[in-house]
Amino acid sequence: MFSLSAAAVLMPLSSNAQEVAGPNKNVELTATATIATDYMFRGISQTLNDSAVHAAFDVSHTSGLFAGVWSSNVDSQDRGPLDDQADQEIDIYVGYGTSLSEDWTVDATAIRYTFPGTASDTDLDWEELLVGVHYREYVSLLMGYSDKVFNLDDKGIYYGLSGNLPLAHNTRLTASVGYYDLDAPLNDSYMDWSIGAEADIGMFTARLAYIDTDSAADKIFGLDKGDARIFFSLTAAFGE
Description:
Elements: H1 10-15, E1 27-36, E2 40-41, E3 44-45, E4 52-61, E5 65-73, E6 88-99, E7 104-114, E8 126-135, E9 139-146, E10 156-166, E11 171-182, H2 183-186, E12 188-201, E13 204-213, H3 215-221, E14 229-238
Antiparallel strand pairs: 1-4, 1-14, 2-3, 4-5, 5-6, 6-7, 7-8, 8-9, 9-10, 10-11, 11-12, 12-13, 13-14
């Protein structure tokens, strides 16, 4: 009965977007649109293993402040009496990032996940605080904390490690591993991981990845949402 969301990929989605020229050179506007074989969040399908379309719009300032909105189609339940009727997710976020040195940066992002149009007796909206530490473009550490994860009354904490290995011709290998501590609200936790590759082709970025979780994910979410899969997405960055 839980519809997860996409916060962990917000920054990667906008990282390849191009600057939109404007009169204020201290401000950058970026926009992206993505088509994907699935909407995957921390190893779990948010569309019952069906395709997804994402869109994002971000604004950032040279001071380090940034904000944006991200949206996707979702589907967390088959039709029936337990269907929450959630068809869309809209995430609104604001944050701040800064450099610690020439190689290290940190950022913090407050996100509200909203699901408009749900059943009258269902409220799926919730908030999360994300903190990231990054070594150049190669390695990122992420921690996500929510005191009411999935709009439940208990906390959930996500720990993630991801990396990129640049190759020739604007391509790179990617890998990630994560652990979601959901012991308080759901009496269980699970791990997710992925390995894949990305390529930049003009205004487009293509991603191909293998994504999987441990057996605990299916126990928690059911409906084969955490099964292993081959994932593909194509993102267009709009700008100058």
